[in-house]
Amino acid sequence: xxxxxxxxxxxxxxxxxxxxxxxxxxxxxxxxxxxxxxxxxxxxxxxxxxxxxxxxxxxxxxxxxxxxxxxxxxxxxxxxxxxxxxxxxxxxxxxxxxxxxxxxxxxxxxxxxxxxxxxxxxxxxxxxxxxxxxxxxxxxxxxxxxxxxxxxxxxxxxxxxxxxxxxxxxxxxxxxxxxxxxxxxxxxxxxxxxxxxxxxxxxxxxxxxxxxxxxxxxxxxxxxxxxxxxxxxxxxxxx
Length: 239
Ligand code: NAP
Prior knowledge:
Layout: E1 5-8, H1 12-18, E2 26-29, E3 42-45, H2 50-60, E4 65-68, H3 75-88, E5 92-95, E6 108-111, H4 114-121, E7 127-130, E8 148-152, E9 156-159, E10 162-166, H5 173-182, E11 187-191, H6 200-208, E12 212-215, E13 225-227, H7 230-236
Parallel strand pairs: 1-2, 1-4, 2-3, 4-5, 5-13, 6-12, 7-8, 7-11, 8-10, 11-12
Antiparallel strand pairs: 9-10
Helix pairs in contact: 2-3, 5-6
Bound molecules: NADP nicotinamide-adenine-dinucleotide phosphate.
NADP nicotinamide-adenine-dinucleotide phosphate binds at residues 8-10, 28-30, 32, 47-50, 53-54, 70-71, 73-77, 80, 132, 191.
């Protein structure tokens, strides 16, 4: 049987793998970011309809290997992938980026969820949020003594207590330093994505003595094989 891969994308490394896949393979995107137009493999955009929908797709499309290369905080699709692969009898591999580790000089405080984050934010006045769009749902909860800077992929209207700036990585340390200084940032809020492209903000926080509130990583399901780097996955796929 000819191998046919379904690659669930969401991180830079997934696109790098997709660029090496031939036309029998499928690269799947949720549809919230840019969709590449220059790939040899097929590109599918949009959800499958939960684990059941994904299992049906695996069977109907004759997929022989499912690869989960989604973001470490995209826990739902990772859970769906593991469940669907088991149900369809297809092996499931995952590319899981190692988490960033605190270094000397870092003041990192892990928070469990949004409620924990709001509590941990109380002593601060000028937070920089780098969690994507989720904080947009909480603009009405901003305490009067705080001014939030919220960085997302696209700029959009904020309110009197918040400005939303749009920017896409990779980010450079000079620009991150200028952002922190211009806006008098006194705390950084981040996921622990482990991405090289967004790491400079952590270097600046360390340099300026700014604490970092880190949203805890979700627990992801066990799969048949787990890779921690693009090169290890590419080698296993013989790409
Ligand atoms: P999520 O909560 O785990 O997934 C929500 C739903 O989106 C899934 O149930 C699935 O819909 C669909 N979906 C997600 N990834 C998909 C893919 N690669 N192909 C087809 N459908 C997909 O994910 P999320 O946190 O909303 O993130 C959405 C996408 O953005 C993910 O692919 C993720 O890798 C990427 N991303 C997320 C973050 C983050 O911080 N969460 C950051 C950067 C990139 P159905 O149930 O209908 O199949």
